[in-house]
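Subject: sequence -> structure tokens, single chain

Hey, anyone have a minute? Need the predicted structure for the following. Not urgent.
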Amino acid sequence: MVNIAENVKEECSRNNISLKSLAEKLGIMPESLSRSLKGNPKLSTIISIANALGVSPSSLLKDRMGVKEGFVYTNKEVHFFSNEEEFELLRKKIFPKRGGIHF
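Reply:
Had a minute. Here:
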């Protein structure tokens, strides 16, 4: 199972940035970031976090054990993906105007 919170913490560590500083970059309170990471963050939140860290959203959705799967909930629909390529296709479908841009 993908642990987005752990992946964000790992990327923060790689970038030498605290979660508090990340929250400031996102323009939110640290408590809001923490609640979001403990729950099931929206794809738009994952994209914003990835932008702030300078990584792709798919890197935050990777299982560090090698399995890359998950789901995105949008407009009362659940979209599943089982690998990075499926996630990228799903991202392009959900955000067609940004299709060629890596967040």
